[in-house]
Amino acid sequence: MRIREFWARLRDSLRSAWRGLSDDTLRSGLAAAGLVIGAGALVLLMAVGAGGSASAEASRLGVGPDLLTVTGQAPGAPAAGASSLTLDDAKLLADSPLDPDVAEVAPVSSAPSTVVFGGASVPVGEVFGSTPAYVGMFGDVVTSGADINDTEYNEAQHVVVLGNTLANELFGGSAKAVGASVSLGGQPYTVVGVLAAKGTSTAAFDPDDSAIAPLTAVQGAISPGGPLSEIDVQAVSGQTTAAQDEVASLLQESHQVTAANQDFTIGPTAALVAPSGMNAAPPVATLAAICIASLLAGGLILMITMWAAVSGRSREIGVRRALGAARGVIRRQFLGEAVLLAALAGVIGVVAGVIGSYFTIDGVKPVLVLYSPLLALCAAAVIGVLFGYLPANRAARIHPIEALRHE
Amino acid sequence: MSMVPEEDGRSPAVPRRSPSVVQMSGVRQVRGSGADALDVLCGIDLDIPHGDYVAVTGPPVGPGKAALSALYGVLGCLEPPAEGEYRLDGVDVTGLEDRKLALVRNRAVGFVFQTPGLMPRTSAFENVELPLAYAKVERSMRRRRAQAALGLVELTGLGENRADRMPVIEQTRVAIARALVTTPCLIIADEPTGELDAKSGSLIMELFDRLNGTGRTIVLMTRDETVAAHAKRIIRLSDGVIAEDKRIAEIDAPPPLAAALLLPKSEPEPELQPDAEQDIETDSDSGRGAGPDIGADMTARARFAGKSRRRRDARGAGTGGKHAGPPEPEFDSAEFDISLPAQLTAGPEPGRQADPTRTSEAGAAALSDKVGG
User: Fold this and answer.
1) Is B116 on the interface with A (CB under 8 A)?
2) How would you write chain B as a 3-class SS string?
3) Would you say B256 and B250 are in contact if contact means Cβ atoms under 8 Å apart?
4) C-alpha to C-alpha distance for A68 and A111, rounded to whole angstroms
5) Which residues in chain A touch residue B289, judged by CB atoms under 8 angstroms apart?
6) d(Cα A5, Cα A363) in Å, to the nearest integer?
7) Which of A113, A242, B109, B260 is 20 to 30 A from B352 in CA distance terms?
8) Model pTM score
9) Which residues of chain A neighbour B135 with C-beta distances below 8 Å?
């Protein structure tokens, strides 16, 4: 009974607050505009932030601490120099029982090249000739078509997986690329798959502007029988250091060198591929703080508009006071209007933000942060209370006699 | 309780707490502060008995206008006087804080403003129900009483219409219904015809005459002589004091310009409805259910019951002007005495005495407790 009474009263005050607001929709709309933008920005920016850090996370995972890169130059030597690594080294690392902490080995032969399709010629930053394991090691995902499989590798078939940017440039979409015949380094290749956009790039290397082909096929055409550019080693999770030592000793023995004069370099891939600081998405918390600040600005707009509205409604306030509303009742009425307006603005903003997060923004696919709509709504409502208080208090202080007998 | 006639000859159904609605003594009011302080009311002594019909006038500009406003404020319990004592229906409201003053306004004063002052985008019902909503009266009861009040101002059946889209005269009627809905002991109308054309104005004044004719105490704040002419008593303010207090007609007599309306008619008076008392019981039950303080309006109603009886006696079988005739089905006339005064003129039933909490004394005491404590 008490609860029903409470709901009835809540409904009454909601209805009367709604009337107060809908009496001047333009004014209410203006008052709410700032909060709509603030709440929408909160949801959207948090989604963008989460999306950015998600892809950053993904690429960091792909080139994470468990990933080692062996290059065929002595430590400190220029990367352009001749490589000492061969496919035999890769086979040794893959087959030897002396490196239990090595999970995967991918020999890589890479070189810049050019893809030609239907008269269009697009330079490729890097064509990686490697094994089927390579795509998975770097956290790449094939969005269209398929990964290179073992048969294609073993038979040295001329198939290629294109980076996302490449596929878009040549075919205008990843789906259209699959099955097409392109010319890669003068050789005919069939596109079997397209990688998902990674969105991360460094000055030296853009993973979206690359292509992956079977090492067997690439070595025949681009660098036949030649040395490997690098060998990528995936260590057993958490055993990177052990894996690095095992790989070093195996290669030293095979190359008949010592640690002092070794002709190869082993290091974590992350350091090579993703220089720190670049592409790091701003933390979600920072974005949220920025949005809360914009919500506060929206609150100020709300306060100013309602403050002005109180003067226009002084007569109504006088009537209500005469009919038995104490100051507190008037204050609650205006506070209720402010909170309702702020909450409505929050809802509209959240809906807009959620819709906005379905679009890719500046290369980042936003990921809706689940608690962000709730956060935006609560922030808007709290702001409604805080910034509605001053106008509500002003309304409560209006002198009923002056309001009623002012002619 | 037996119907012992009081010295003025009235036979109230219930004893009244105070013979007067308004008792003011030495009321002073100040505007501004410090060096700018201005005495706008300089010692007002005023006594308005139940059933009186008073017009308060004053100079239209300057301090005189401020005096009128200030008296309006004190009379309507919008603000307490700076000095002096003010008893409204026997309750001392002099030093009450804002919340309690609001309670008194809600229960004991009915306001009719210069403009209708209706809430936008709101039905006539909801406008009339507003004071009851502030009184926290339960919803269905609010609607019933709003219906009855709208019936009193001849707007039966228009309750669902949006009030702000009605013609001004009907808006004014809605505003009057809103003032009546809590059955206040005092109705204050501030230039009630100010926004109306002459014809509408005289219709509204006719309505006030009728309301007074059935026992309601009305104070008109007006500078319009034609409006003031409707009152039984004209009070003129000057320099913050009452310069003139002229009685035009006796309290017991019909309003001076309404005599024609109240002439005895040959039609038989409507039958007393057997369930009339029952309706009152239901009403007071629900009223108390919504809070003990609602009892104040029952004081007023019961008082007018006695009043109405006297009025009916005075003019024979006459009924309340245009309201003569059988009650409309949805009109819960038992809650208001104007339409069928005969209903409430029957002496108190033993059943009512048996439960003292249902008498208006209890309600009156409740208001006293509430505002005095």
Assistant:
1) no
2) CCCCCCCCCCCCCCCCCCCEEEEEEEEEEEECCHHHCEEEEEEEEEEEECCCEEEEECCCCHHHHHHHHHHHHHHCCCCCCCEEEEEECCEECCCCCHHHHHHHHHHHEEEECCCCCCCCCCEHHHHHHHHHHHCCCCHHHHHHHHHHHHHHCCCCCCCCCEHHHCCHHHHHHHHHHHHHCCCCCEEEEECCCCCCCHHHHHHHHHHHHHHHHCCCCEEEECCCHHHHCCCCEEEEEECCEEEEEEECCCCCCCCHHHCCCCCCCCCCCCCCCCCHHHHHHHHHHHHHHCCHHHHHHHHHHHHHHHHHHHHHHHCCCCCCHHHCCCCCCCCCHHHCCCCCHHHHHCCCCHHHHHCHHHCHHHHHHHHHHHHHC
3) no
4) 20
5) none
6) 53
7) B109
8) 0.61
9) 324
The residue type of A154 is: N
The nearest CA of chain B is from the CA of A385 a distance in Å of 22
d(CA B81, CA B27): 6
Alpha-carbon dihedral sign for residues B226, B227, B230, B231? negative
pLDDT tens readout for residues B166-195: 999 999 999 999 999 999 999 999 988 888
Residues of A at the B interface, defined by Cβ within 8 angstroms: 5, 8-9, 12, 19, 22-23, 315-316, 318-329, 399-401, 404-405, 407
Residues B25-71 have pLDDT tens digits of: 999 998 887 777 888 899 999 999 999 999 999 887 776 778 888 99
Q: Burial letters for A186-225: b for 16+ Cβ neighbours within 10 Å, e otherwise?
A: ebebbbbbbbbbbbbbeeeebbbbbbbbbbbbbbebbbee
Q: Which of B111, B121, B135 shows the shortest C-beta gap to A322?
A: B111
The number of C-beta contacts closer than 8 angstroms across A and B is 81
Contact B113 A401 (CB under 8 A): no
| Sheet architecture: strand order including B20-31 | B38-49, B20-31, B83-88, B91-92
Contact B178 A323 (CB under 8 A): yes
